[in-house]
Design a protein that fits this description.
about 700 residues; globular; about 5% strand; 4 domains; mainly alpha
Length: about 700
């Protein structure tokens, strides 16, 4: 990013915070005036009383609302800045899983947020587009990424909601403030956006360009239940929209879905539940059909399953929300397995595709036992997938996991050993080369010996001798490496050197430490010993200041046999790739979920949580992108095991994984389930629909 553009971007953010301190009190004043005007013209007593309560409550909390709104806005902007990595999502819409856990009041708050955002966005649409392109340009982007604008309208509205929810006022009062003040809030934001855009243009910032994309025209007509002759329009109303409230009722079981409904209300709820379930299935499959991470034959076959899934929705209207339901598990299994293939020519894809086709044919056969077919089909799919992996590969994966667990245990123990060594009184005065050796390779030696000692104790034998011996040489090693001390007692120096060197070599050999690196340390140590032996001192030794120790590498250390047994990605590949600056993955399809979102989440999270088990990735190796899935992560998130579609294993350390991400040599294909994401999109659509209805 150009330095002048960086300054313009930072200045724009500072100016936005300054302008907000001006317009927030002004907006609250307009809100108060509007409430008073509506109060005078209200025709119904209940409406008038509600407006009076909203106005008087605002009068009592006006300063507090302004203070909290400003604080929440400043925090939201900081969190939404691209370089902070806090990763606000593209839309604050509730996820499908979250919706099931929400109460009715939370659903209404979410709907209210959607409506306010809709009004505000309509008011600022043109001005926001201009400002976004300029702020993107100031960040060095050539094409517009809306999420890279930390001042976007949803950030402002979310900050307002945060401020209001912190007040001890009735929900009805908050809702009335939002409903009454949404239009004037949009007006104030529009004025701020215009002023900020003008200043960026004066600073010479070039706007980023918008990319024109094709969008689907219209919405697919909803499925009709022919048996009951009830359409979505008849059940949900004239607007024919699946709303968040309807979806919430379906998920939490507020609708009577019994087949033997006895009264008119129960019959209506039964029809509504079945219709809603059919609508969810239709929207879910529509989303999956557009997911280009799945190869076209699989997407087509999943669409052919629609009649069977719609039939199932009539008897089990919430099957898609239950992740243990056999039908849902079958969908998850098919979509997850299909992510393993990048081409229809990939080995193994043809048999997989044929099996999915067979599953579809089985499900489409007429008969009343549809629900009972799913468990058997799921078991058959799992067995066939397991059969594609050779026994030797299964054994290799088991050995890799066992090795990686041991490596992590030793490295974590080595960190504690290093801390113990640093805490010694004689540690700080030692030369840097010795300190680095002790807190690096030697801490691994001691940790390995302690683990072996624990294993021996578990078998009823004594294996502590090596661990004690490796720890007992520390006083002599630290003393002999200090010129000022060792030169005063040459007889002791001559006596202890052979034993120290012998023990050091024994320990390093025990962990198969590379011989060339060991010899480099021994040469440095013997140089210290030789200098101490030749130095003559008549007075007390001067205070020797500790040398500066460079930052230690946080890469977990492995023995060569461990690297082989765990199928570790060769570090020379990582280092070689680090020297190239040519962008990678230029021709690959983008993931369905925004890559910026994933990178932002990874910046916030650490360890195994950053890329959860089950994530599919493409790794660029030898000029070719290969598809892998994270099938195991160590308990502390320092080691990852990847498996290919054919059962091959590949392991990486956390640092190696981060290097590949930094070099853009590893791309996330999917870190959430395809069905999960499709259902989240259904919830998001219901959320948007809720904003359009009153």
């Amino acid at each position: 990013m150009d330095a002048s553009n960086t300054q313009a971007f930072d200045a724009s953010i500072r100016q936005a915070l300054t302008l907000t301190r001006d317009w927030v009190p002004r907006w609250l004043g307009k809100l108060h005036s509007t409430l008073r005007d509506r109060e005078h013209t209200a025709s119904h007593l209940s409406e008038k009383q509600g407006l009076v309560q909203a106005r008087t409550t605002l009068e009592a909390h006006r300063d507090l609302v302004a203070t909290r709104f400003l604080a929440a806005f400043a925090e939201s902007v900081q969190n939404a800045l691209p370089h902070t990595g806090s990763g606000t999502r593209r839309s604050p819409a509730v996820s499908f899983d979250e919706l099931e856990l929400m109460g009715d009041d939370q659903v209404q708050e979410t709907v209210e947020l959607a409506r306010v955002q809709q009004i505000v966005k309509m008011a600022v649409d043109e001005e926001l587009a201009t400002l976004t392109s300029l702020l993107n340009g100031a960040q060095g982007l050539t094409t517009v990424h809306p999420d890279a604008n930390p001042l976007r309208a949803e950030v402002v509205v979310a900050a307002l909601m945060t401020a209001l929810k912190g007040l001890h006022v009735d929900a009805a009062v908050r809702a009335r403030w939002l409903q009454t003040g949404a239009i004037t809030l949009g007006d104030e934001l529009r004025g701020m956006y215009v002023q900020l855009a003008r200043e960026l243009e004066k600073a010479g910032v070039k706007p980023a360009g918008y990319v024109v994309t094709q969008t689907a025209i219209g919405r697919q007509p909803a499925f009709e239940l022919k048996e009951e002759a009830v359409s979505v329009q008849e059940v949900l109303g004239d607007d024919n929209l699946l709303t968040l409230d309807h979806l919430h009722q379906l998920l939490v079981g507020n609708l009577d879905l019994n087949d033997k409904a006895r009264n008119r209300t129960a019959v209506s709820e039964n029809m509504m539940g079945r219709t809603l379930a059919s609508e969810v299935v239709t929207l879910m499959l529509k989303r999956i059909a557009s997911d280009e991470r799945l190869l076209a034959p699989v997407r087509d076959q999943l669409q052919e399953m629609k009649p069977a899934l719609l039939q199932l929705a009539r008897s089990e209207p919430r099957f898609f929300a239950d992740k243990e339901n056999p039908a849902r598990r079958l969908l998850d299994a098919i979509t997850e397995r299909s992510l393993a293939f990048t081409s229809e020519l990939d080995p193994g894809f043809a048999p997989f595709s044929n099996q999915v086709r067979s599953i579809v044919r089985t499900l489409l056969n007429p008969g009343p036992d549809l629900s009972a077919r799913f468990p058997g089909l799921l078991d058959e799919l799992k067995r066939s997938q397991a059969a594609t992996v050779a026994p030797a590969q299964v054994q290799a994966r088991g050995l890799a996991v066992q090795t990686l667990v041991r490596v992590e245990q030793r490295n974590l123990l080595a960190e504690r050993v290093a801390a113990e060594i640093r805490a010694r009184n004689d540690f700080d005065k030692a030369p840097g080369v010795v300190r680095r050796f002790l807190t690096g390779p030697w801490s691994q030696v001691v940790a390995q010996a302690r683990l072996e000692s624990a294993d021996a104790a578990a078998l009823g034998t004594d294996g502590q001798a090596a661990a004690l011996r490796y720890n007992d040489i520390l006083p002599d090693l630290l003393w002999s490496s200090q010129l000022a001390l060792a030169s005063l007692n040459r007889p002791r120096l001559v006596k202890i050197i052979p034993g120290v060197l012998r023990t050091l070599r024994e320990g390093l050999d025990a962990i198969d430490y590379p011989r060339e690196q060991a010899e480099s340390f021994f040469q440095a140590l013997m140089g210290l010993h030789e200098a101490a032996y030749k130095t003559q001192r008549n007075g007390p030794p001067p205070d020797d200041q500790p040398s500066i120790q460079p930052e230690e590498d946080d890469e977990p250390w492995m023995q060569r046999t461990e690297a082989r047994d765990s199928c570790l990605m060769d570090d020379t590949f990582l280092e070689a790739q680090a020297t190239t600056t040519q962008p990678a993955f230029l021709e690959t399809q983008p993931m369905q979920r925004d890559w910026a979102d994933v990178k932002a989440e990874m910046a916030v999270q650490r360890g195994a949580d950053a890329l959860p088990v089950g994530t599919w990735v493409d790794v660029l190796q030898d000029g070719q992108a290969t598809r892998w899935q994270i099938t195991w992560a160590s308990p502390h998130g320092t080691m990852f095991l990847f498996t290919s579609a054919h059962g091959r294993s590949l392991s990486m350390t956390k640092r190696g994984l981060e290097r590949l991400l930094e070099q853009d040599r590893l791309r996330v294909v999917a870190n959430h389930g395809v069905v999960d994401e499709a259902l989240d999109e259904v919830a998001r659509q219901a959320w948007l629909n809720s904003a359009k209805t009153r």
